[in-house]
Amino acid sequence: QVQLVESGGGLVQPGGSLRLSCAASGSISSSNVMGWYRQAPWKSRELVASLSRAGRAVYADFVKGRFSISRDSTENTVYLQMNSLKPGDTGVYYCFYVTVGSPNTWGQGTQVTVSA
Question: What is residue 97's predicted lDDT score, i.e. its pLDDT?
Answer without folding.
Answer: 96
